[in-house]
Design a protein that fits this description.
The structure holds 2 protein chains of 2 kinds.
Chain A (H helix, E strand, L loop, with lengths): L4 E12 L2 E12 L3 E5 L6 H9 L6 E6 L2 E2 L4 H7 E4 L11 H11 L7 H10 L15 H13 L5 E5 L7 H16 L3 E5 L3 H7 L2 E6 L2 E7 H6 L3 E8 L8 H6 E5 L2 E7 L4 H10 L4 E7 L3 H9 L6
Parallel strand pairs in A: 3-8, 3-9, 6-7, 7-8
Antiparallel strand pairs in A: 1-2, 1-4, 4-5, 9-10, 11-13, 11-14, 12-13
Chain B lengths: L1 H18 L2 H22 L12 H32 L2 H5 L5 H27 L10 H25 L3 H17 L12 H7 L3 H14 L6 H25 L6
Classes of the chains: A alpha/beta, B mainly alpha.
Bound molecules: adenosine-5'-diphosphate and magnesium ion (MG).
């Protein structure tokens, strides 16, 4: 039972004034999973992560990291979790290397940890900057220093809050390769990201948060499969100026003579083909496109009656 | 053992922080205090110290040492904490397993070390010119340690409370500075009118300065035991209040 759970969140609530940043959130994150926490801006993702890591005090509810309560057993809980915060930080007095050694020291880890710190510097492409100070680094570099800082004590759970914001694409790929390596070695990874493709490619499990509540929680596969729409890409011989009503209504995206149609699941594709023919257009290709996490996310987080 | 290493790491960091800017944190207060000694000591050389057989500059030197220790110990923990808040790196500490008591104590250690460095540098340079007998070395050490601890604790509390640099500056200008100047750094309270003498008894800084001066000169306005008891009590009160606030995450854990 509980020994398979990395994070156990029970009816967690946190308000800022009248605003409920977290509203009775309950969630279990299995050990060894690669977990995405998604949601629009202001959904409460950072607040939730803040409570996990001890930076934020919740109003009610509890969080356990591998069985250790983050309030009553904070020292053990904090040794098991590493947080890469969303906001960048600065530290003008110490070099990157000193900073990492100091951070390890806070965890009671001395010289024996230094080879691991060197490994982190190398893996994260910071080796050349190890004697520089934080203020001399670009935003992307600072982000990587924060990742190294979160990993100095080799936590069992790594939490990354918008880790790739401001990091260029090439670095982003390198970064994910490293995080995947850590995951393969057994680390539980939790991330929030605005790049839904990243979540889709990396994460097995997804929770979607909106206005402090969990809207959806399932495996990425199941979430994609539960999407109420399917997508069909239609290629016409010639781009048409006007489309028949049926196609116009289903139109999701349009690029010249390529149309992506959004259809309720199970609608006959033959109907589309005949609608095209009736309109006197020539169909050259028609194929199904998978729903992306982005599509799922859009539908789920849109407020109003569309759901 | 692990907790001990964490605490030592933070102490070391606090000391290294001010040492990396020692011109500003150690040398500048040394020079400005020696200027005070030079000018006031010179101008008031014939002045009355309030104690028989004691020249004014002899009375002044321990007072100035104390003033420098008070201010620098306070500055160290308060600036360190507010800078950490401003730069956001306080979160790194809050993410660690260090206990509130360990965090508080390590900041106090940093303040004690800086206070003692500045105070003793002033004492050593000043004694080349003004006779420094050191009558009771144990009391001297006790009050040096206790005072820098109290000021380190007070600085930590102020740094915890302040959200901006100017709030901290206000605390320094409207609380620390008046209490320091009214603590008998420049004069013996026995020369004051009775009303002011009574007001002085409510100033905790007075007991620190008076006890410290007893350690050096062997003269004081009140018994060193009374000063010791009051200063120690003040330190305990400050520690309990600050550690409690820190445990609750007052102003730092959102
Ligand atoms: N310290 C704070 N004071 C007041 N409101 C806050 C604070 N932190 C977050 N909030 C509010 O709580 C809500 C959730 O914020 P956050 O967890 O940062 O969202 P997300 O990370 O999903 O974008 C937002 O409406 C935000 O404005
Ligand atoms: Mg956020």
């Amino acid at each position: 039972m509980s020994h398979n759970i990395a994070i156990e969140i029970q009816t967690l609530s946190k308000s800022y004034g009248d605003m409920k940043a977290l509203d009775q959130v309950s969630l279990q994150i299995p050990k060894g999973s690669f977990f995405a926490l998604l949601g629009p801006n202001g959904a409460g993702k950072s607040t939730l992560i803040g409570v996990l890591s001890g930076l934020i005090n919740a109003d009610a509810g509890s969080v356990k990291i591998l069985g250790h309560d983050v309030v009553t057993d904070y020292a053990a809980a904090r040794r098991l979790i590493g947080l890469v915060p969303q906001e960048l930080i600065d530290e003008p007095f110490f070099s990157i290397l000193d900073l990492l050694r100091i951070q390890a020291g806070y965890f009671g880890l001395g010289k024996a940890q230094w080879p691991w710190i060197d490994t982190l510097l190398q893996k994260l492409g910071l080796w050349d900057k190890k004697d520089a100070g934080m203020p001399a680094l670009s935003g992307g570099m600072k982000r990587r220093v924060l990742i190294a800082l979160a990993l100095v004590h080799k936590p069992s759970v790594l939490v990354l809050d918008e880790p790739t914001a401001g990091v260029d694409i090439e670095l982003r790929l390198g970064l994910w390769a490293f995080i995947r390596e850590l995951h393969a070695e057994g680390m539980t990874i939790i991330l929030t990201t605005h790049y839904l493709e990243e979540a889709e490619q990396l994460c097995e499990q997804v929770a979607i948060l909106r206005e402090g509540k969990i809207l959806a929680l399932s495996s990425t596969q199941a979430l994609l499969a539960s999407h109420p729409w399917e997508y069909v890409e239609v290629t016409l011989a010639v781009a048409a100026a006007t489309l028949p009503d049926m196609l116009q209504q289903a139109l999701h995206r349009r690029q010249g003579n390529k149309l992506v149609l959004r259809l309720p699941r199970g609608q006959q594709r033959a109907e589309i083909a005949s609608a095209i023919q009736e309109a006197g257009l020539l169909l050259t290709e028609m194929r199904q496109v998978e729903a992306s996490l982005e599509d799922v996310f859009r539908v789920l987080t849109r407020s109003g009656s569309e759901l | 053992m692990r907790r001990y290493l964490g605490f030592m790491t933070l102490c070391h960091k606090e000391i290294k922080r001010f040492m990396s800017v020692s011109i500003q944190t150690v040398f500048a207060p040394l020079v400005s205090t020696l200027l005070y000694l030079l000018i006031f000591g010179q101008v008031m050389q014939t002045g009355d110290s309030g104690f028989d057989g004691l020249a004014y500059h002899q009375f002044l030197l321990p007072g100035l040492m104390m003033m420098a220790m008070l201010q620098n110990a306070f500055s160290n923990s308060s600036s360190s904490l507010i800078q950490s808040k401003m730069y956001g790196n306080l979160d790194l500490l809050l993410l660690s397993p260090l206990s509130p008591a360990a965090i508080f104590s390590a900041f106090v250690v940093g303040a004690v070390v800086r206070g003692i460095m500045v105070g003793f540098a002033i004492g050593i340079v000043g004694s080349l010119w003004v006779a420094m007998p050191v009558m009771h070395v144990v009391w001297l050490m006790v009050f040096t340690l206790l005072t820098t601890m109290v000021m380190g604790a007070l600085g930590f509390l102020a740094g915890l409370w302040a959200a901006k640099y100017d709030q901290l500056a206000a605390f320094q200008n409207f609380v620390i500075l008046p209490l320091t100047f009214l603590s008998g750094v420049f004069y013996s309270v026995s020369v004051l009118p009775p009303v002011w003498q009574q007001a002085t008894w409510f100033n905790p800084f007075f007991y620190m300065v008076d006890g410290f001066r007893f350690g050096i000169l062997g003269v004081s306005d009140v018994s060193p035991w009374l000063s010791f008891a009051i200063t120690l009590g003040f330190m305990l009160l400050l520690s309990i209040v600050t550690i409690t606030l820190l445990t609750r995450g007052w102003k730092i854990r959102r």
